[in-house]
Amino acid sequence: MITVCQNMAMSAEDKLLMRHQLRKHKILMKVFLNQVLKPFLEESKCQNLLLLFGFINYSKLPSLALVQGELVGGLSFLMAQTHFLLQHQPLQLTALLDQFVRQQCPRDSAASARGKPDPPDPVPDS
Question: Over the stretch 4-62, which tens digit does the pLDDT of each residue have?
Fold first, then answer.
């Protein structure tokens, strides 16, 4: 029986403990480098394990310059959008407040023409 395990960043003590536990069950542990393991896995029926061990075809990844350009473009867009919002939101808020005041003025003038103000809105009991 062959068991394939990924060699993770374990301390030497943990590796020794694991080796000892496996040896109790009469299982021997051998460690192989990725350079040895990859050709073996490519030619065996276990080739689907290649993806699990992080063997990636780096030629399919975009170039570093392209990724950096996309990152800079995305960050520039966000910075420009933030600048736009900071610059135009106070103007928009002022315009909305002016519109609200204009809408309230006819209501206030109609109430003063009748001689008494509108009754206040009822407050719900809580």
Answer: 666 677 788 988 898 899 889 888 888 877 777 778 777 887 777 666 666 556 667 78
Would you list the DSSP string of 44-84?
A: STTGGGTTTTT---GGGSPPHHHHHHHHHHHHHHHHHHHHH
Backbone angles phi, psi at 116, to 5 degrees: -140, 145
Q: Within a 10 A sphere around the Cβ of 41, how many other Cβ atoms?
A: 19
* Calpha distance 72→66 (Å, rounded): 10
Q: Model's pTM, two decimal places?
A: 0.33
Instruction: Output the CA–CA distances (angstroms, integers) from residue 105 to 46, 96, 98, 99, 113, in the order listed.
Output: 79, 14, 11, 10, 12
Structure tokens belonging to residue 5: 């395990």
